[in-house]
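HOLO CASE FILE
Compound: magnesium ion
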Amino acid sequence: MKILKFGGTSVGTPQRMKDVCQLITDGERKIVVLSAMSGTTNSLVEIADYIKKKNLEGAGSVINKLRTLYRTHVSELYSKQENVEHTDNLLNDIFMHLHDLTTKPYSTALEKEILAQGELMSTNMVTNYLKECGIKVMLIPALDYMRTDANSEPDMSFIRENLSHILEKNSGYDLYITQGFICRNINGEIDNLQRGGSDYTACLIGAVLHADEIQIWTDIDGMHNNDPRFVEGTTPVRQLNFEEAAELAYFGAKILHPTCIQPAHYAGVPVRLLNTMDPSAPGTIINDQMQKGTIKAVAAKDNITAIKIVSSRMLLATGFLHKLFETFEVNHTPVDMVTTSEVGVTLTIDNNAHLANIVEELKQYGTVSIDENMCIICVVGDLRWGNVGFETLVTEALANIPVRMISYGGSNHNISFLIREQDKKAALCALSEKLFKDKNTAKK
Ligand code: ADP
Ligand code: ASP
Ligand code: MG
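Model generated. Tokens follow.
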């Protein structure tokens, strides 16, 4: 069994939905995970934001615009009038529900319920289109099996048990459609796997079912060797090791949700990145093989804050680092990079929600200073310490850029730099120039 995920642009118009249906109806048994049509989740975020600001007129106007758009989509998607009416009625219920939600006071639970509607709409539209084409297909509601636990992490045993049960009860199908992104939390309330979370849904399903392969279909021909939004002429990387892909995803390669590779890695299920607009392009395969002696790709993660704690008294004392890390743990803030010297430690975080508290608590242990609006540049490949000269090559590329931190040797796959956000594009271009030479040029 394969798991195929199609992102927002892949189902962004009625024609694209039809193209996806063509791709998935080859008779092979599969589960297809769909995102909301592109732009829809952003509109739903806007609706929730208007409710938060108590501007119900604003919320209503976005809902009405979306309603008109979906009416057009539905009339273009189906050839039989009865199917247009059937799906339009179904979407009407969803839009009525959205209008009802605007009358309730804002809460994060309300926002999550609003955000869930995009995937509910796209999956119903595609399923009904497949039925119109005479394809035997079953829509599996993600809210019946996708769940997070008390730590907001996917509850793997719940997902495995419930999804397997649904599939066993409905074994007479070769094609199943389900919603990406949406789930329930430990209390059974509607929740989600964070923006871009449909990739995560596909990888979680692939992992719990021990699928043959997970395919992430998107609008580009695989993982490129640098961020194509900032560097011109980037080229696809044909193969990545799970750990290389996980680093790139976590450190900003938007093509993959930051944590989606982990479950596939643990389950040993290969992940293939493919292009819906060019289905015959080879894309990128992510598996456990390691290509020796090559630097594969570069990615960048914004909104990073560096926190420096200097204490000549404490650093060598037993338990000092423990106390520092505990401060981040109790403030529910993960640490990305760490560098140490004899008198100080600098750590980076990507979420400033608890920054004030963290700084306040760290002041017990030393003098604290922070640098905001920083960016982590992550270079990924075969970066084992025995490979002489690789770190020099990377450092040379950044010769003209002020570097705040360097982290190397934490794994065999990565060297990371902390720079100012404003230097990001120059750094990415310089790295492409040095590492991938003639393949890239700077975007004007
Ligand atoms: P989807 O809606 O299918 O999930 P996304 O927009 O989330 O698609 O991801 C695909 C986009 O990721 C590409 O269009 C590209 O602009 C961006 N991207 C950023 N970094 C990379 C990279 N290293 N390789 C490929 N695409 C990347
Ligand atoms: N629709 C959600 C988003 O836009 C999830 C996804 O597309 O992966 O973030
Ligand atoms: Mg995405």
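CASE NOTES: The longest helix spans residues 56-77. DSSP finds 14 helices and 18 strands in the chain.
CLOSED: yes
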